[in-house]
Design goal:
CATH architecture: 3-Layer(aba) Sandwich
CATH class: Alpha Beta
Shape: globular
Largest sheet: 9 strands, mixed
Strand order of the largest sheet: 5-4-1-8-9-10-11-12-13
Length: about 300
């Protein structure tokens, strides 16, 4: 079986600021903000939510099918995915724009400042999820991860119309949507995955508590970084303890690694709590490596 992963493909330029943002930004001067950060370390990585989730799922032995767009500079990304054995059949190159680009700066406390250029991602809605195609590919479930606004709306509706269960993962795209649109996503989805900040925003925008949200889907997960995660099923919350990383190097892509584990477990019919336990392990593994797609399994998968 396969998982259709709708989301972005992007190049990540990752910079490390050795100080703390809080020490450089004066709250009383925000109206005339003018700051500069010295970043001794800089690297360019393959990223984007669809690429990162696909990497994680493939690492676990799953069959990811990313559905995404690349720009005219995306040939290297296509070659990388193919070298990993990840299908590129549902990736389109847009000739008159760049691939999406994320410029990410991380401070010593793992706080991040990100600038994002969407580029080809804004054409992602041109790709459609067709029921006949899903059956041919053996797609068991999907995910709507951060992507172009129109693509997220249309792909959620297309998953629902095809009767394919999917995870709604709004991520940094959450502020793009109205209260009514966010409620629509939840009502179409089978699962919702958010971090603690996104969970608060989702509750504020929809007017639903986490307990209420969890009753509208099969399950809700709220990741808490170093504190593990919360799993909500039918209004009941369970805290899943974190896994301890060997070191803390780079948080970029930890949430996507977690979501790859979620898809892996859901496809196998695991409970949400069991999926979350594996997700915490993948997140801990990823944070010990630089870049979102440069970690490797160092443990045996449970049967």
């Amino acid at each position: 079986m396969a998982a259709l992963i709708c989301g972005s493909l992007a190049f990540d330029t990752i910079m490390t600021f050795e100080g703390r943002f809080a020490e450089q930004i004066l709250p009383e001067q925000l109206h005339i903000l003018n700051v500069s950060f010295l970043v001794p370390s800089l690297r360019r990585d393959f990223g984007g939510c669809a690429g990162n989730i696909a990497y994680s799922l493939k690492l676990l032995g799953g069959n990811p099918l990313p559905m995404a767009t690349l720009g005219n500079d995306g040939q290297d990304y296509l070659a990388r995915l193919q070298s990993l054995g990840i299908s590129t059949a549902h990736i389109t190159q847009v000739g008159d724009t760049y691939t999406a680009q994320a410029m990410i700066m991380t401070d010593r406390d793992n706080n991040q400042i990100t600038a994002f250029h969407p580029g080809a991602m804004m054409q992602a809605h041109t790709q459609r999820i067709e029921p006949a195609l899903l059956g041919t590919l053996g797609v068991a479930l999907g995910i709507v991860a951060p992507d172009g606004r129109d693509a997220m709306l249309e792909h959620a509706a297309q998953f629902k119309a095809a009767d394919v269960p999917f995870v709604f993962d709004p991520g940094q795209g959450l502020p793009m949507f109205s209260s009514e649109e966010l409620a629509g996503f939840v009502e179409q989805a089978s699962w919702v995955a958010v971090n603690d900040y996104e969970a608060k925003m989702l509750c504020e925008r929809t007017g639903w508590s986490l307990e209420q949200l969890s009753r509208k889907v099969r399950g809700l997960v709220v990741t808490l970084g170093g504190q593990g995660c919360e799993v909500w099923v039918d209004g009941e919350k369970t805290h899943i303890a974190p896994a301890t990383p060997s070191s803390i190097v780079d948080p970029t892509g930890c949430g996507d690694a977690w979501r790859g584990a979620l898809l892996f477990g859901l496809e196998k019919g695991w409970s949400l709590a069991r999926c979350a336990t594996l997700g915490n392990r993948l997140g801990a593994l990823k944070i010990a490596a630089r870049g979102p797609q440069n970690y490797h399994l160092d443990f045996a998968l449970p049967a």
